[in-house]
Amino acid sequence: MNAPSLFDNIPEPPTPYVAGSDTSRERAIKEDTTGIATERRQTILALLTQAPDGLTWREISHRLGWHHGQVSSALCVLHKQGKIAMLTAKRDKCHPYVHPAFFQAHADELIMEPAQTRAGRKNEAINDVLEAARAFCQTGLGAGAIRDALRVLDSLDE
Questions:
Q1: Nearest to residue 52, comparing CAs of 7, 104, 90, 130?
Q2: Which long-range contacts (CB under 8 A, 24 or more apart) does 77-81 make?
Q3: Does 91 reside within a domain?
Q4: Is 86 among the domain residues?
Q5: Are residues 133 and 83 in the same domain?
Q6: Nearest CA among 16, 34, 125 for reference residue 72
Q7: What's the CA gap between 144 and 132, in Å, rounded?
Q8: Which residue has the higher pLDDT, 7 or 111?
Q9: C-alpha distances in angstroms, 104 versus 56, 83, 101?
Q10: Per-position DSSP letters for 63-104, written without gaps between them
Q11: Is 50 left (phi over 0), alpha (psi -120 to 50) or beta?
């Protein structure tokens, strides 16, 4: 029997993919449905438990033989979930990521939440509008939620 992991009972977020790329989106969906994405995240998390100074995507890529997209998408999800943190310092023009076991040693240089680009905020706002509109169509309730979501979306264009 396998021991429980940090990923048990936590819904897996979808694997990031390159917007506008059908092949990237299809790869992400396939890796999510087959469990490959989860395995990658667990492998990287285990690797980071052995790296007190953290590892960059390049270092992880070199050690595991994975390409940039495979490593960076796993790091992105782990970072968003709060399972790892990025350091402010850089090595070879890349930020290292550290396991929580080493957070205290790097307390002054932790970036706990990934930066979100303007495009990312806009996509999130669009999704909020769509969710509110769907709920409104199904229930006839929630016009205020649509108004609020549209207000956020409009503010991003200013």
A1: 104
A2: 77/12, 77/13, 77/15, 77/16, 77/37, 77/41, 78/41, 78/44, 78/45, 79/113, 79/114, 80/13, 80/113, 80/114, 81/10, 81/13
A3: yes
A4: yes
A5: no
A6: 16
A7: 9
A8: 111
A9: 19, 14, 8
A10: HHT--HHHHHHHHHHHHHTTSSEEESS-BTTB--EE-GGGTG
A11: alpha
H/E element, 126: helix 118-139
Instruction: Please state the domain count of the chain.
Output: 2
- Cβ contacts of 130 within 8 Å, gap of 6 or more: none
Task: Let me know: does 44 contact 71? Beta carbons within 8 Å.
Answer: yes
Instruction: Kindly state whether residues 50 and 124 are assigned to the same domain.
Output: no
26 CB burial (10 A radius; 0-12, 13-18, 19+): exposed
Decide: helix, strand or coil at residue 110: strand
Written as one letter, the residue type at 5 is S
Amino acid of residue 134: R
pLDDT digits (tens, 9 = 90+) for 106-141: 999 998 887 766 777 777 777 788 888 878 778 877
